[in-house]
Amino acid sequence: MKNRLVVLGGGESGVGTAILGKNKGFEVFVSDFGKIKDTYKQVLIHHEIEWEEGGHTEAKILSATTVMKSPGIPETAPIVKKLKEAGVRVISEIEFASAYTEATIVGITGSNGKTTTATLTYELLKQGGLSVALGGNIGKSFAEQVSESTLEAQETGEEKYKNFVLELSSFQLDGIETFAPHIALLLNLSPDHLDRYDYKYENYIASKFRIAMNQTEDDYFIYDADDVEIAKWLEKNPVKSHKLPFSVTKELKEGAYIKNNEIIITIQNTNLAMPIASLGIKGQHNQKNAMAASTVAHLLKIRKATIRECLESFQGVEHRLEKVLKINNVVYINDSKATNVNATFYALDSMETPTVWIVGGVDKGNNYSELLALVNEKVKAIVCLGVDNQKILNAFGNIVDKMVETQSMEQAIKAAYRLAERGDTVLLSPACASFDLFENYEDRGRQFKEAVRHL
């Protein structure tokens, strides 16, 4: 009897898992409740993998030995409930794929900064000469890259990638059982995706800490020592791995901290120091991202000179405080990746000129109160961009004189253009998910850049 793998969701992680499953001898079936993109259909057809879209055939799904659920599908989906009741194993792509690689895994999670830190870590390891791939919640799926890596191992006896840097969302971590990264990073915690966690912050925090649950004494856990919620959790729930904190407020015996405007990293009596001023990415949150990534590089024995050069040249990632254009002396900044309040807090905090702020989308249980002081100080006008903007209007109506509602990116940019004067900044930092008007945050960011270029 062949092992039967059913994949729920025909997107990047689903199709990658299907390819890996097929290569490992599973009988594979992909089922998507919605539509599968043509590019993914072609891949499934090429690999001769059976698929369906526009609904689930229950008999075919319930006969699975293992089900990989794509991260976007909630636990409350009827088909997932039926699988759980039937006692079928339901896991994430990360759990499925990690079983098939011997590579060193660096897993990065947190409410904010994951993409920047994962990309920077990947660059540090690549420039340091390691064979490394970047995956998870970013770029090409982890499972498909494991498939490539193991196929090469069959031919040459060596895996294509010796290291994986994975950006991990809480949804991906919810579906793990044995997954244990050798190096785990928890960058920070702030309320996010609470709609998927019964609106309980503690459920979301527990989900993030799953990244360390299977680690042993031989593994490493890198975390923000300034984060109150992380400290509270660690007091009650000790982790087995070797802890390496980073901080911008206190000196640490071991880990990374700031002293005399230098980042200092100390691990097992070896030191690395680098001036903050020479970092390619600006802002205190990016100092933390740089500390976390450099700690990984230091652990994996990347040369100090390489680490310094890489930190100086790294300019950040697309859709994260990305300067797009300057028109009539107004700077347009794309921060579409800010899908929660905390990310937008960092963005507003880094503004140095009067700001026209474009905000809105699908609210995930946001609490806007922590932005009030910053909005009062920095924001001259708000452009709402969402199907339902009531919560934003209620939160900021009393402190910002000019508020405009728009329903498309083109409308939003035209409104912002009218409101902005010479020396101002127009900032897209939505604090919300994008699914009401856009495919995803990348689509939203690209539409922003397109609309700005057409002004």
Describe this structure in words.
The chain has 455 residues and is α/β, with parallel strands linked by helices. The chain has three domains: 4-91, Rossmann fold; 95-313, Mur-like, catalytic domain (UDP-N-acetylmuramoyl-L-alanine:D-glutamate ligase), CATH 3.40.1190.10; 322-453, Protein-Tyrosine Phosphatase, Chain A (Alpha-Beta Complex), CATH 3.90.190. The protein is 36% helix and 22% strand. It has 17 helices and 20 strands. The strands form four sheets. Strands 7-8-6-9-10-11 form a six-stranded parallel β-sheet, covered by helices on one side. Strands 15-16-20-17-18-19 form a six-stranded mixed β-sheet. It is globular and about 70 Å long. The N and C termini lie far apart (62 Å). The mean pLDDT is 93. Belongs to the MurCDEF family. Cell wall formation. Catalyzes the addition of glutamate to the nucleotide precursor UDP-N-acetylmuramoyl-L-alanine (UMA).
List keywords for this structure.
Protein-Tyrosine Phosphatase, Chain A; six-stranded parallel sheet; 36% helix; Rossmann fold; 3 domains; alpha/beta; globular; 17 helices; UDP-N-acetylmuramoyl-L-alanine:D-glutamate ligase
Output the number of helix runs: 17
Give the uncertain stretches in residue-range form.
Answer: none
C-alpha termini separation: 62 Å
The total strand number stands at 20
- CATH architecture tag of the largest domain: 3-Layer(aba) Sandwich
Name the overall outline: globular
CATH topology category name of the largest domain: UDP-N-acetylmuramoyl-L-alanine:D-glutamate ligase
Under CATH, the homologous superfamily of the largest domain reads Mur-like, catalytic domain
Helix content: 25-40%
Identify the CATH class of the largest domain.
Alpha Beta
Strand content: 15-25%
Query: How much is the average pLDDT?
Result: 93
Task: Report the radius of gyration as a whole number of Å.
Answer: 23 Å
Describe the biggest sheet?
6 strands, parallel
What structural class is derived from the secondary structure elements? alpha/beta
Strand order of the largest sheet: 7-8-6-9-10-11
Total discrete domains = 3
